[in-house]
Write a structure and sequence with these properties.
The complex is a heterodimer. Chain A is mostly helical. Chain A has four helices and no strands. In chain A, helix 2 packs antiparallel against helix 4 (59-91) and helix 3 (44-52) runs antiparallel to helix 4 (59-91). The longest helix of chain A has 33 residues, at 59-91. Chain B is of the alpha/beta class. Chain B folds into three domains: 1-77; 80-287, no CATH class; 299-480, Rossmann fold, CATH 3.40.50.1220. Chain B is 59% helix and 7% strand. Chain B has helices at 3-23, 27-52, 58-77, 83-110, 117-121, 135-165, 179-198, 203-221, 229-251, 254-278, 282-287, 299-303, 312-320, 331-335, 339-351, 370-377, 388-391, 413-416, 467-480, and strands at 308-309, 324-329, 355-360, 385-387, 400-404, 435-440, 460-464. In chain B, strands 1-7-6-5-2-3-4 form a seven-stranded parallel sheet. In chain B, helix 6 (135-165) packs antiparallel against helix 9. Chain B is elongated and about 80 Å long. The N and C termini of chain B lie far apart (74 Å). At the A-B interface, helix 1, helix 2, helix 3 and helix 4 of A face helix 1, helix 2, helix 3, helix 4 and helix 6 of B.
């Protein structure tokens, strides 16, 4: 149970931190914020790698892992690239 | 690799994500912030890969290559006007990734290899100890069930949102019974999650959760109209984050929890901002229609004989003598791809010493910040994009307001007509300016289905036609004057 309480504490504190951070983002940057957080949510790639690389597991698990890796990579690569493209436009001036 | 080193690397990645979002609080530091965040991602992924050891990398390499190619093509080819579609798709992929991770984890711990669909439904003998000791097993199962549920809703809901934004799906469909139908689906899905938690070997219940949640995502978003999409996209953004955080609980992975909860709160805060800007509750957007008004307002009564139309060159004559002009863009500007034309008109005015600013309503467009991105693409400096609360007091000192493709967000009924469906919604008080020019295809009502008394006011001129063409003609006329 110890580890669960630690994870829960991490979760709750991150939520509060999230509120503090996000409320300071100006409306002008709300679209890049959404695509940028999309890229961050691609952190599921870490979980996907663990699933796809599970040697001892049945084929179905590897296939699901492959799908997860693909989708999460799209999120990471697509999210960061498109956010960078948008933010570069804001920076020009 | 030592588990402590891995977790320390995850902590560093989490810090980089936080610094990344902090960078987004200012346009100047935003690019660097995004890079820091990407660096954090790279660190987390590399450490995870190194920690996998000597295993079969076939599936991983295949997935990363396919994902990287698809992701780069999408990101580099998407038009700025289509950014809401892009974000909707990314939300969906995020939900899909969490869904498949949770399912993979479920079947891996179960240790079964279903060979056919029938076997997929056949119960196997298992208890929660396969998922962790004592309470940990139960919590892991709850997390798996909820991740599957939220991930699947996000997946199909986002694809419907995409179809609506891309105008592939124009009509609104819903379950009979509307919110009640959706509630029944949600309840059934939650009961199935409960069945899995009680008996993890009940694979049929897990398949039921997937099926019910996929359908629920469809039915939740299908009835929602285009102008409410900012709320839907923000909410699905939040779901994709929450699903990632829950996946972190399944795997006991700290960086998933940190990143997921940051994304989850981001989406929720944006949802809240959008709802406030429309003066509607989240439940009303998701399940309700616009409030029915007591008496239907007859558009003919509002407009009859009172609407003045004008040609672009007549508008240019008014602009010539103006000192301060505010441009108010809406979704129509995106539809007409008129952002570059608008910037050129602003340049022409500024060349004459006219002060030009842009008034941006929070729900203008199809996603939070949509107008800002379009105008930034057209190289409008971001300090000229003024948010609603700051631009509203300046309208009284404004000579001309040019409204292009916006309607409901300028409707004075929201301020003056108590009992109107949009009463109480914060609007841009463009009617306080000395002259108002509205560029619009026709007098057709906006999303709220209401006539806009602004169009019939004495100091309002309607310029009918394509937004881009009208703005270009104004610029030409102004340059020749």
């Amino acid at each position: 149970m110890d580890i669960l309480i630690l994870l829960l504490a991490l979760f709750v504190l991150s939520l509060f931190l999230g509120v503090e951070l996000i409320t300071k983002v100006p409306p002008t940057l709300h679209t890049p914020l959404m695509s940028g957080t999309n890229a961050v949510s691609g952190i599921t790639l870490v979980g996907a790698l663990l699933a796809a690389g599970n040697d001892s597991s049945p084929m179905l698990v590897n296939v699901l892992g492959f799908i997860a890796v693909t989708l999460a990579t799209i999120n990471v690569v697509g999210g960061y690239l498109v956010t960078n493209r948008m933010l570069a436009m804001f920076k020009r001036k | 690799m030592n588990a402590n080193i891995v977790n320390f690397a995850y902590l560093l990645a989490g810090i980089l994500f936080i610094l990344g979002i902090k960078g987004l609080t200012k346009p100047k530091t935003a690019v660097r912030g995004n890079m820091l965040s990407a660096l954090g991602m790279l660190l987390a992924v590399v450490v995870t890969l190194l920690n996998l050891g000597a295993i079969d990398f076939t599936y991983i390499i295949a997935g990363v290559v396919v994902g990287a190619v698809v992701g780069s093509i999408m990101a580099l080819r998407i038009q700025m006007t289509s950014m809401p579609q892009m974000v909707a798709l990314l939300n969906g992929f995020g939900g899909g990734a969490s869904l498949t991770i949770a399912l993979a984890e479920y079947y891996a711990k179960l240790g079964t290899t279903p060979g056919s669909f029938a076997e997929l439904l056949t119960p196997v003998v298992a208890d929660s100890s396969a998922f962790g000791l004592g309470a940990e097993g139960t919590v892991a199962l709850i997390a798996i069930g909820l991740t599957v549920l939220i991930g699947a809703v996000t997946l199909t809901g986002s694809f419907v949102a995409f179809a609506k934004l891309q105008e592939l799906m124009k009509k609104s469909y819903g379950l009979p019974g509307g919110p009640i139908g959706n509630a029944v689906f949600l309840l059934a899905a939650l009961i199935s999650v409960g069945l899995v938690v009680v008996d993890p070997g009940n694979v049929a219940a897990m398949v039921a959760v997937v099926a019910l949640a996929l359908l629920l995502g469809l039915f939740l978003v299908m009835p929602i109209g285009g102008a409410d999409m900012p709320v839907v996209i923000a909410l699905l953004n939040s779901y994709s984050g929450i699903a990632a955080a829950l996946a972190g609980f399944i795997l006991g992975n700290t960086v998933l929890i940190i990143a997921g909860s940051l994304v989850g709160t981001s989406g929720l805060i944006l949802t809240q901002i959008m709802c406030v800007a429309m003066n509607r509750s989240l439940a009303n957007v998701l399940f309700g229609k616009m409030a029915e008004s007591g008496e239907t307002i007859d558009a003919d009564e509002v407009y009859a004989g009172k609407v003045t139309s004008a040609q672009p060159d007549e508008v240019a004559m008014i602009l010539e003598t103006a000192r301060r002009v505010v441009i108010v863009p809406g979704y129509g500007m995106a539809m007409a791809q008129a952002q570059h034309a608008v910037r050129e008109l602003a340049d022409a005015m500024e060349a004459r010493g006219i002060e030009v600013e842009y008034g941006i309503h929070p729900v203008a467009g199809r996603m939070p910040g949509h107008m800002n991105v379009l105008l930034a693409e057209a190289e409008v400096p971001y300090d000229k994009l003024v948010e609603m609360d700051r631009i509203n007091p300046t309208f009284e000192d404004t000579d001309v307001v040019i409204v292009i493709g916006a309607n409901d967000v300028t409707n004075p009924m929201a301020r003056d007509a108590e009992g109107s469906p949009i009463y109480g919604m914060p609007i841009l008080n463009v009617d306080k300016a000395r002259n108002v020019v509205v560029i619009k295809r026709s007098l057709s009502p906006g999303f709220a289905g209401l006539p806009n008394p602004l169009f019939a006011m004495d100091h309002t001129l309607m310029v009918y036609g394509d937004g881009k063409k009208a703005v270009i003609e104004m610029t030409t006329a102004l340059n020749q004057a």
